[in-house]
Amino acid sequence: MTGASGCVGRAVVRALLAAGHDVVAAQRTRPSIFPAAVGWRAFDAGTPAVAASLFEGVDALVHLAATAHVVPRSSSEVDRMVEVNGSGSRRVADAAARAGVRRMVYASSVAVYGSGRTTGDAPCPDTPYGRSKLLGERPFLDAGGVILRLSLIFGDGDRGNLAVLAKQVRAWGGVVLGDGSNRKSMAYAPHVGERIERILATPSIPEAAFDLVDYSPTQRELLDSIARAVGRPPPHRVPLRPFQAAGTLIDAATRALGRSPRWRRRVDKLVEETTFSGAALDRLLSYEVPRTLDRALHETFGGAA
């Protein structure tokens, strides 16, 4: 498994170990967060070749390694993202296929759809990240793999948008922007791990791309649930436009300092409607989400700051 020490990777390792699988983490350095039962092989997603020895004795591959949670600031950074997420994924899929790996799962993203699209629409990515993940899908489909287009992920080790939002709510209470009625699809990392374990154990799952979703709360419902998890009162509702204007001003200042602009983008992402359906995959797996959103957020963010 690549990307084992990330938010999703940790959950997948736990699910596979609990089901009795032997797990090998493929990454640059040996991970210290796992028990001794987890093996290790050296691997770098950005290297120009994948050694055949990486797959010796391997029956299944879960490819999670990717460049994520960054906004490229230059063409060279875009190229690096495409190299790791696109070309790097092709090298991994091709090497695994040559080695006879019988089952492959590739973690893609709903970002491949692009803004304003949803489950069932043709992918039309409008960000470097979305384009790079779509490039990574093709070689795994060609190799007979299962593609999981993950919605917004949260869980242990999360460094993404929801973790940033929870940190803000914990620190100063947060706000609901606009009327708060827009919905956001998301998934809890342990549930992703459970589904991946079932996919590996279910040969009848077809070689196709599936969206993976646990919850689709409104912005208001999400922020209220985060507030309960971190022990804060429900956030107040505020007009959207002043926050958009403030985000634009902050971004202008950060550009002047040579840093990546991010605040207007975060505001716009919070109020964007991004809903998807994971029903097709869950029907095939006979999977029912075992935790409520409140419980999952409390498990993730409810501890001490």
Observed structural traits:
single chain, 305 residues, alpha/beta, Rossmann fold, four-stranded parallel sheet, two-stranded parallel sheet, 10 helices, 10 strands, 13% strand, globular
> Shape, please?
globular
- Main beta sheet, described? 4 strands, parallel
DSSP strand count: 10
Highest CATH level, the class: Alpha Beta
Question: Which superfamily, in CATH terms, is the homologous superfamily?
Answer: NAD(P)-binding Rossmann-like Domain
| Percent of sequence in beta strands | 5-15%
Tally the helices: 10
User: What does the average pLDDT come to?
Assistant: 93
Number of domains: 1
Determine the fraction of residues in helical runs and give it as a percent range: 40-55%
What name does CATH use for the topology? Rossmann fold
| N/C terminus separation | 30 Å
Q: How is the largest sheet built, in terms of strand order? A: 3-4-5-9
Assign the structural class, choosing from mainly alpha, mainly beta, alpha/beta, alpha+beta, or little secondary structure.
Answer: alpha/beta
Residue windows where pLDDT falls under 50 for at least 5 positions: none
General description of the model:
The two termini are 30 Å apart. The longest helix has 24 residues. By secondary structure, this protein is α/β, with parallel strands linked by helices. The strands form four sheets. Strands 3-4-5-9 form a four-stranded parallel sheet, with helices on both faces. Helix 1 packs across helix 5. The relative contact order is 0.13. It has a single domain, classed as Rossmann fold.
